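Quick question about two entries, pasted in order.
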Amino acid sequence: MESHATRLTQAHIHLDRLTHNLRLIAGEAPGALLWPVVKANAYGHGAQIVARHLVESGHRTLCVADVAEAMELKDASIDASYIVLSATLPEHSEALVANGFEVVVCTRDMVEALARESKKAQREISLHVKVDTGMGRIGIRPDDVSAFLAHCREFPTLRVRGLMSHFPRADEADKTYSIEQLKRFNRIVEATKDQGIEVYHMANSAAIFDLPDSHFDAVRPGIAIYGLRPSTDIANPKVGELRPVLELKSRITFLKEVPQGHGLSYGHAAHTARASLIATVPAGYGDGVSRGLSNDIDMLIRGTRCSQIGNVTMDMSLVDVTALRGQVKIGDEATLIGRDGTEEITADELAAKLGTINYEIVTRIGQRVPRVAVGN
């Protein structure tokens, strides 16, 4: 998404930090291929900006959630191999084959649909067979792997390039379940290593840092490439060297002196405790600032934490800048996520206030917010 000068609320995407994070992750998984995940608009960071930088940095395989995400990047002339991670339907097979995407499969119907389309197109298609070793989401059962691979081999235009699984609890301090899950996958690897599988892959961001035995031939880092911790329970101290790629910035558009006891915003959910200077910032829940954060967050203005006050509205939020009276002015920058001077507001801080995870904070940033590449 391109920058729009008229949009005062922008997400700044620091490409130098993205590069730093990728190098850090690669150092934690030496010898493994690095397949970055750019699904959900690159976790809210702007898929085209991120994917283009990844490809220019030498990363030739990218993971997406669905066909539409892969097509959007291909149509933007971002030349990469795309692995479609989510389960797809037979109706998607024509587009998958026509575009040469690599497909994660876990049903025979999908295998057969891809076989028909690839035969018609006279084009080989690469598959990654998903095995459910404990996620409980998509994937075939471990004891079905042999028969499923045999079925795939019945079709000469299909090539099973990868065999994969996924961790549901690798970000927890207690790795007992993940270690058992890894043992299940290792048994599958041993049973299939003579069946032409090119790449075994399982590790997500948490496993890259905390489960080195899970790296196999390739790893699929997601949240970590964006400089965010998979959780606070990661034991590997190197996770502390990740640098947040995204900053969410806006600007003050209005300043108003109001008396003590003045009601603010919809529902008058807050009243001023004293005569106050209130700033209006054009960032609201239409931009991804949850209404559930009302009266519970700060913004950084002139390097100072200032309390947001009143209900967050669709397009605007109010901030108490009384402490900056005589210094603050219309047009000043307001930081919702990021650093200003010695102060910093993180996605983790906002997530804790909402009782959610940092993934949700960044992925919910609205589409109307321009993603602006900086620090290239």
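Here is the second entry:
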Amino acid sequence: MTRQNGFDWTGEVPLRWRDLDAYGHVYYGEYLTLLDEARVAMLKAALGPTDPQFVVARVELDYRSQVTVEDGPLAAEVQVERVGNSSLTLRERLSSNDGRLVLESRVVVVLYDLDARKPRQVTDEERHALS
């Protein structure tokens, strides 16, 4: 993964039986949930323990390898590629417990004010923490 600038985070996401399809593989739609868990953990690490409020504006997924429950927990990497006025562009990777790359993603999230029901600006403190 190419890092241009920004905050880096690594961690793990567990695999659950509910993540599997009838063939015993992680169902393709569940990767969005696994990535979201990693993304929220990264944002909490960078911005503080409160739940970050954001909406996903764009997702690109590149599936690299199949995954079964034996391949977990998955190693997760999230990198901040760009900090905009109200958005963050993130690069994400998931790897199996034996180091095999299973998924790469690029996501744009928009920080959101739930009370006002609209995007909000990235604060100077957030910008500093993410760079």
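Reply: The first strand starts at residue 8 and ends at 13. The helical segments are 30-47, 124-130. Hope that helps.
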